[in-house]
Amino acid sequence: MVKWGLAAAFAALCATFAAPASAQNNIPSPTLDAVRARGMLNCGIHNGVAGFALPDSRGVVQGLDVDLCRGLAVAVFNDASKVRFIPVSSSTRFTALGSGEIDVLFRTSTQTMLRDTTLGLRHVTTYFYDGHGFMVRANAGVQRVRDMEGATICLIQGTTNEQVTADYFRSVSVRFQPVVFERTDQAQAALVAGRCDSFGTDASQLAGVRAAMPNPQEWTILSERFSKEPYGAYVRRGDDNWFDIVRWYTTAVIEAEEQGITRANAEEQRRTSVNPNTRRLLGVTPELGQSLKLDPAWAYNVIRAIGNYGELYERTMGESTPVALPRGPNNLWTNGGLLYALPMR
C-alpha cells in the first residue's frame, strides 16, 4: 500500500510539471484581453527627445522606444499601426501605467530597486544601458564636473538624475544650484537661454537634446559618467502573461540580431534554416507563440516589421543619425557590449 501511495504521489507530481504551457494558457491575462478587445495598444513614450521619441518633419513620431511600441503591436495584432502613442512626463509616467491609462511604458525608464518594489509595477527586460552625464557650452572651459563650482544645472523632475546629481556634488563638496523642469524641452530651452550652465541627465538623452539644438557644435557632453541607468519597459504587477509577452518580445528582438536575422532575410531564414533555435524563433515550430498566447509567427512578424535590435539602434540613434551615439554598452555581448538574449527554448 505504501508503494502504491508513493507511486501515485510521484505520478501526480510528474503531471504537475508535464504541461506547463497548457497550465499557463489557462491563466487569465487582463491586459492582453483588454488590448485585444480595444483593438489598440496604448503605449507610454517620452514627450520629446531625439533618438527615443520625437516627431519628424511630417509630424510622425520616431525613435527607439516608438519602434519598440510598434513592434509590440505587431506581436499582438500583426499590425504596426494598432498602437496609440501616449506621451507621458517623468513625473506622470508611472501613475499613468498604474492607473491603466497605458498598457506598457517604453520611456527611458531606469530599473531601480525601489521602483521595482514599491510602485506596484515591474521592470521587464533591459534594452538600453546608459549613465548620467552633463552637457555644457563647448567654450565654457569646463573639462570635468568638479570644475562647475556654483553652477546652475537643469534637471528633470521625477527622474533618478536629480538624486544622482545631488549625491555626486555632495560627495566632492562642490556647490551647485538645481533648476528643475517637468519636461526635457523646457530644460533644453532654459539651457539655450542661459538660465542654466549645464544640463544633467542620461548621456543618450543629452546626445538627443544636442542633436536638436540650433547649433549642436556649440555644446559638449562631458566624458564622465556617474550612474548606471538600465532602461526597460514597465508593466503593472499581477499580470504574468502580459509580463511574459513584453519580456520575451524584447528578448526576441535582441535574439534576432544574435542570430543574424534581419528584416531583409527573415523570410528566407524561416523557409530554409535548419537551426532549431531559428525555427523556434521564427515560428516554424509553434511552441514559443503557444506559451505566450500569441500567433506562432509573432517574432517573425516583428522582425519583418521593425528589424532586429541592431537595425533599430542604427536607424534611430546610430552614428549615421543626428544623435550619432556609438553603441558602446548597447552592443551585443559577443561584440563587447552588455546586450544578451536569454535562451528562447
UniProtKB/TrEMBL annotation:
It comes from the Bacteria. The keyword Signal applies. PROSITE patterns: SBP_BACTERIAL_3. Residues 1-23 form the signal peptide. Residues 40-269 form the Solute-binding protein family 3/N-terminal domain. The keyword Transmembrane does not apply. Keywords: Signal, Transport. Belongs to the bacterial solute-binding protein 3 family. This is Amino acid ABC transporter substrate-binding protein.
